[in-house]
Amino acid sequence: MIAVPPNTKIWIALGRTDMRRGFNGLSLMVQEQMRMDPWSGHGFVFRGRRGDYIKILWADGHGLCLFSKRLEEGLFAWPSLKDGTAPMTSAQFAMLLDGLEWRTVRDARRGRRAG
């Protein structure tokens, strides 16, 4: 599991990404398509066409890190939008890495009544 620093924002790249891209290709994608700075300290998550493989680009203050994960069974849950970006919470990111459905997470405390 990747330990995400407390103030790190996680951004998911919607749509499909060519998973042959490495540091330079994904950094360029962050700059040109997502209109963000790859050196900002935010995490950027990309998913390929098949859906069982993701890459995470993150600048840790010393350099760029590129993490990848492939599921042995199943697919990573991904929004159906074709283009753009979406923010994720650290809890949603942890669920994504575990291969769980993270898009419909709701706060169980909502709707509770005192007493």
From TrEMBL:
Alphabetical list of Pfam families matching this protein: TnpB_IS66
Domain of life of the native organism: Bacteria
InterPro entries hit by this protein: Transposase_IS66_Orf2 (IPR008878)
Name of protein: Transposase
Organism expressing this protein natively: Hyphococcus luteus
